[in-house]
Amino acid sequence: MTQSHTYTPKNIALVAHDHKKQDLINWVKIHRKLLGRHQIICTGTTGSLVEQVLHSKQQENSSKNLVKLKSGPLGGDQQLGAYICENKVDLLIFFWDPMEPHPHDVDVKALLRIAVLYNIPFACNESSADFLISSPLVESDYAIKQMDFTNYLSRQLTSE
């Protein structure tokens, strides 16, 4: 008798800067089977490229598990940040390019800040993404510890 493996599908966000998109696509190809079992959330062009990889003979229904947001510079990073604030992201894979200036650097910084604030595990390169996605917690009932913002929300405000 085989034991069935149960897991809770995760909401996995995939993002890549232009010069890192091919690296992310190659990474998605390697992890296609695992990613196909989860909800994928992508920004802009990255989402279209990921969809092409996941929408293969092996993963015919995977496009149903893909949410495409706006392009990063057009607000996609902020949309993804809102998803994190609404507890709609379980982990973030963001292949960012540290060698190129980006017109939306402040949005990227804000996205990473929100990921830390809401205790979302994230990876910013292939090695850390490999470690993160290979964790047995990816396919378990692991619940992210919710941060308590009570003290911040109940602080005394003074007018100047």
UniProtKB/TrEMBL annotation:
Keywords: Lyase
SUPFAM superfamilies linked: Methylglyoxal synthase-like
Lyase as UniProt keyword: yes
Enzymatic class: lyase
Binding site for substrate: H17, K21, T43, G44, T45, T46, S71, G72, H104
Pfam family, one: MGS
Catalytic residues identified in the record: D77 (proton donor/acceptor)
GO BP terms, alphabetized: methylglyoxal biosynthetic process
Cellular component per GO, a single term: cytosol
Lyase recorded as keyword: yes
Limits of the MGS-like domain: 4-160
Gene3D superfamilies, per database record: Methylglyoxal synthase-like domain (3.40.50.1380)
GO MF annotation: an example: methylglyoxal synthase activity
Catalytic activity: dihydroxyacetone phosphate = methylglyoxal + phosphate
NCBIfam families noted in UniProt: MGSA (TIGR00160), PRK05234.1 (NF003559)
Similarity annotation: Belongs to the methylglyoxal synthase family.
Name the record gives this protein: Methylglyoxal synthase
Species of provenance: Pleionea mediterranea
Upper lineage: Bacteria, Pseudomonadati, Pseudomonadota, Gammaproteobacteria, Oceanospirillales
Originating gene: mgsA
